[in-house]
Design a protein that fits this description.
Elements: E1 5-10, E2 21-27, E3 30-39, E4 42-47, E5 72-73, E6 80-81, E7 88-90, E8 100-101, E9 103-106, E10 109-113
Antiparallel strand pairs: 1-10, 2-3, 3-4, 4-8, 5-6, 6-7, 9-10
């Protein structure tokens, strides 16, 4: 199935295990914060909402990784997530996961595919 693509940012705006790129999406008329990070060479996109309580993860705009650069962390609750999958690895999120977004990288751009979300909250 082919999906429409929405340009989010240039590839060089999202460095490996560095600062993420924030943007907004609309789901059923609600505007939500979302972000893209790069991990293991690939861009990964998620809704910017902790799986424990619906608050944004970043402790400063675009800062999603913990101090080691290995995990995504919720600045409010300390929940830790695997950057490659969004699954909760520890903290109060109880084995839940971040809501993933389908993103692709083409011609030095990162794009969001207009695909249905796997699960929403």
């Amino acid at each position: 199935m082919a999906y429409a693509k929405r340009l989010i940012c240039d590839s060089d705006q999202v460095l490996e295990q560095g600062k993420g790129f924030r943007f907004e999406i609309e789901v059923d008329g609600e505007v939500l914060s979302a972000f893209i990070i790069r991990y293991e060479g690939r861009p990964r996109g998620y809704v910017n909402r902790c799986a424990h309580v619906p608050v944004e993860l970043d402790w400063q705009e675009g800062d999603f990784f913990d101090s080691s650069g290995q995990y995504l962390i919720c600045s409010t609750h300390g929940a830790i997530y695997a950057p490659e999958s969004g699954y909760c690895l520890g903290g109060p999120c109880g084995g839940k996961r971040l809501v993933p977004l389908k993103v692709v990288e083409e011609d030095n751009h990162i794009m969001l595919l207009d695909a249905p979300l796997i699960e929403l909250f």
